[in-house]
Write a structure and sequence with these properties.
Blueprint lengths: L2 E8 L6 H12 L3 E15 L1 H6 L10 E7 L5 E7 L9 E2 L13 E7 L2 H11 L6 E17 L2 E10 L4 E11 L9 H17 L7 E3 L11 H11 L3
Antiparallel strand pairs: 1-9, 1-10, 2-3, 2-7, 3-4, 4-6, 5-10, 7-8, 8-9
């Protein structure tokens, strides 16, 4: 079983965050390059009129619709509808241990074939379903780097927003390959191996990161990594 954790580091004024992460990895490990990777994420939010018609005058239960593409999962695109969030800047500080859900609602996730079918669904929502969902932001990693070191795969990428490609920060995907075969105690495996991921990250000495490991519905399906990305990318980075 492979176990993955995500970390987000906000961009600094001198745009040195990506270089800092790479330098820390290089100083501690012998890195073997892996293929570069990309990410594309589109976030839409339910319009207030929909929530109001459902009986919520304040619109506090607005849902989120997300479209996610990951190049290391090339055959599928992912669509998620997220329950209302208790806070907009979610994520657990990297130094804390425990449940990282922070009261966030779980998302319902489905996979569809990538390519034409995925783009057609996006256009359907933007076009014919436009009155129901308003576009919030598009985020992407266009030329991320990836490395293998000991029992880990690490993917790094500068997360950019919109056509202006404004750098919002650096996303790091840490995958531990040493979990062995998954058994019946799936939750126990997560409890143990997430500590390995956290120890790996803490050893790099990078402060100010937000951690996304223990998200709602973790270990209950085949979309653990997607759930983590949806949680990270749904916040206002």
């Amino acid at each position: 079983m492979t176990v993955t954790g995500l970390y987000f580091l906000p961009s600094t004024a001198d745009r040195s965050t990506f270089r800092s992460v790479t330098d820390r990895l290089t100083s501690r490990y012998e890195l073997t390059p892996l293929p570069r990777w990309t990410l594309e994420h589109r976030l839409m939010r339910e319009t207030p009129r929909v929530a109001t018609s459902a009986g919520d005058d304040k619109g506090s239960t607005l849902r989120y619709l997300q479209f996610l593409n990951l190049s290391h999962h090339p055959s599928q695109s992912y669509v998620a509808i997220a329950a209302p969030q208790a806070q907009t800047r979610a994520g657990t500080p990297a130094s804390s241990v425990g449940d990282g859900a922070s009261g966030e609602g779980a998302a319902t996730i489905v996979a569809i074939p990538s390519g034409v079918q995925s783009e057609e669904m996006v256009q359907l929502v933007v076009g014919k379903l436009g009155p129901l969902w308003s576009h919030r932001q598009t985020l992407h990693v266009s030329n991320g780097t990836a490395y293998e070191m000991e029992d880990f795969h690490v993917r790094l990428g500068e997360l950019r927003q919109g056509q202006s490609a404004q750098i919002k920060g650096v996303v790091a995907e840490v995958e531990w390959l040493g979990g062995g075969d998954s058994g019946s105690e799936e939750e126990a495996d997560w409890d143990t191996t997430e500590l390995v991921i956290r120890a790996f990250w803490d050893a790099l000495g990078l402060e100010g990161a937000r951690e996304f490991i223990r998200v709602p519905e973790l270990g209950k399906g085949r979309f653990d990594l997607v759930s983590q990305y949806c949680q990270l990318l749904r916040v206002r980075v």
